Amino acid sequence: MLTLKCPYCGVDADETDLHAGGEAHLTREGPGASDDAFEDYLFMRENPKGVHFERWRHAYGCGKWFLAARCTTTLQVFGTYPAQTLEPPQDIKDAISAQRPGWSWGNFK
What is the span of the domain harbouring residue 81? Predict the structure, then answer.
């Protein structure tokens, strides 16, 4: 079972207490965006086998959204961090690099 630590309330919550919110760190396109950019925002998502950054909501806890770095094949969690963070914290990127040398995802290495 997947267990994530909420960075806000500090609770180790299992997946039944959480709600998945899809891919993290998306560039949200507004009203002035081109049709192609808006189409990419709506439909084009990373779907890697391996390290992935995701949005989660602590639905049956504090109710706040947060971000998590985890492996989609092993459910290994590299860390969680607040939703307002623009990129994964360095300690999480270092933890991923230590176990998965040469990994990259989007603009993050």
Answer: 3-95
Percent of the chain with pLDDT over 90: 56
Rounded to two decimals, the pTM is 0.85
Instruction: Please indicate, yes or no, if residue 102 is contained in any of the structural domains.
Output: no
Q: Where are the beta strands (DSSP E) in the chain?
A: 3-5, 12-14, 19-23, 51-57, 65-71, 77-82
Chain position carrying tokens 């991923």? 96
Burial class (CB within 10 angstroms; exposed 0-12, middle 13-18, buried 19+) of 31:
exposed
Task: Tell me if 24 sits within 8 A of 54, measured CB to CB.
Answer: yes
**How many other C-beta atoms are found inside a 10 Å radius of the C-beta of residue 19?**
13
When the pLDDT of each residue in the chain is averaged and rounded to a whole number, the result is 89
How many CA atoms lie within 13 Å of 1's alpha carbon, on the beta-carbon side?
Answer: 8
Report the C-alpha gap between 9 and 13 in whole angstroms.
10
Helix (H) or strand (E) holding 59, with range, is none
Query: Residue 59's domain is classified under what CATH number?
Result: 3.30.2270.10
